[in-house]
Amino acid sequence: MPGAFPESSTVERRESPTNGRNSTCEKPTDHTKNKPLQSEVYGHVDGELHHHHKRKSDTAYLEETNRDPKTSKPKPLQDGKKMKETIKLLDDSVIQEPSSYIRCLPSKGVRRILIESLNEWLEIPKASQEIITVVVDLLHNASLMLDDCEDGSELRRGSPATHMIFGQAQTINTATFLFVRAMQEVARLPSARSTALLTEQLETTFVGQSWDLYWRQRLLCPTEDEYLEMADRKTGGLFALLASLMVSESRSTADYDLDTLVTMLGRYFQIRDDYSNLTCQEYTDQKGFCEDLDEGKISYCLVMCAQKDKGRAEQIMGIFRQQAVLRGPKALQRQTKEHILKLLEEAGAMEATMKKLRELERGLDAEIEGLERVGGVENPLLKMVVEMLRI
Known about the structure:
The longest helix has 27 residues, at 349-375. By secondary structure, the chain is mostly helical. The strands form three sheets. A two-stranded antiparallel ribbon has the order 1-2. The chain has a two-stranded antiparallel sheet with strand order 3-4. Helix content is 64%, strand content 5%.
């Protein structure tokens, strides 16, 4: 009957009629000569406990099997005890694998050096510096994983992108987990403003990313001002966060305003990445030849092309539209990419992009010198960061 314990039985050995070898077959019997199984010791019929061989007290057995003494039915979980025991069987090793993988890929460590260089001025406690470094690493790795998923990139720093190994779903889950970890870490900072600074900056960063995706998906070319604002929000967001967190922990008596510095850094990073993806052999080795063109990326170079030569810009947008319609996510032919590069060169877009980079480099040099005068402290480490990035 449903819910009842099985009736007692023993197993007898008999000769198989087919091959003459011994085989064990279940043959119910009505005797209990052998040592009884636990199911033989207790059973219940219509909710009533009955005894076959009473070896334990009713209460002891029911407590052992987590049953209600009155009904002998399983009791509900109490105080999450059983659930907690189950959770202990599963650790965070699976969710950590994608982040462990991307951390092992080659990196220049620019953000870590930037934190060290800014601390030449801000003089934050060592413990706070370590926490901010961890927070920035977590957010940076999360953004890399999400970017590769959203862009359909197959390579990252010359190795398979994280989602090409662990799948998009697991990669997105891990990236989200890293945001949670970053929240936990930032809560350890002494400043009461730290958590608010993080959430505000994350909101700004996601909004910036949304416009980058929107222009690409709708095949719309923004103005230069719109593009720079997107860069300020998306790429500059992490720089703005680390600077604001460090200022909130600063013990320096000098009044350092880092807003202009981090804004120019964000713009420089974004435009430099756009330019290098189309021209740099190192990027070709790490991500493939002009990979941004495969995804139909609306880069600063294309924005300059649209500003200087609408006809050539429309040709490029036409290629992107046909790629989306006819070939889907497949890579563009190399000859097609070379044609796009030729159009950008002829329109003067690549020259204009390099001119913007040089302008930002001069601006960064001047801003660093101005900040050195504010506190009377030179910062060769920060100047080295700019030199590392210079094309």
